[in-house]
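Holo prediction — zinc ion.
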Amino acid sequence: MQYIDPYTLLIIAMIISFYAQIKVQSTFKRYSSVRCNKGYTAAQVARYLLDRSGLNDVKIEPVAGNLTDHYDPRDKTLRLSQSVYNSNSVAAVGVAAHETGHAIQHDTGYAPLSIRNSLVPVVNFGSNASWLLIILALITGIQPLLNLGIVLFSAAVLFQLITLPVEFNASNRALGLLESEGILYNDEMDSARKVLSAAAFTYVAAAIISIVQLIRLLSMSRRRSD
Ligand SMILES: [Zn+2]
C-alpha cells in the first residue's frame, strides 16, 4: 500500500479548511443583504419556532462577535450574534432556525448531541494535555507518553466527528421548520440552504484537519517504535 506523506495531507487539509472559511464568510455576506419577504427578524423567527416546538422556556439573547451564534444547553439560552439578532436577512433567519434546531435536539435528547456534550470536559482537558504529552515524548523519547497523547488526541477527533451529524441534523430541522411554518419562500429556502451548507462545510474541514493530525501522530509513533 502506498502512503501519502502526512505533511502533504496536512497541507491539503489546511487548504480545504481555508477554502471553507472563505466560503462561509462570502456566502453569509451575500445572503445577509437579501431581506426575506416576510420581514421577520432572526430573533423573532427563533422565538416563533421555539414556541411552536413547545420550548417557551428557552431564552434568546444577543452575543458579541461575528458567526458566534450558538445554543447553550446549560442555561437553555439561544445566543444570536449582533449582526444576526435584529437582521431580517435570509442568512440571519437561516442561522436562527439552525440554532433552534440545536435547542430541539437538546429537548428531545438527540443521541449524537448528548454524546457530544458528554465529551466536552474530556476534550477541553485532552486537547491541551495531548500536545503537552506529545512534546514531552519528543523531548524525552519516552514512547508511552506519545501513545497517551495520541489516545487523548483521539478523543478530540471523536468529538469533531460526532459534531458532524449534530450540525447536519440541526440544519435539516431548521430547513424543515422554515418551510413547514411558511417563514421562507422557495427561492429563499435555496438561499438559506446554501448558507447552512457553507457553515456545515467548516465543520467537515475541521474534522478532516484533525483526522490528518491523527494520521501524522500515528505514523510518528510507528516510526519511533520501529
Ligand atoms: Zn450548529
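READOUT: The two ends are 18 Å apart (CA to CA).
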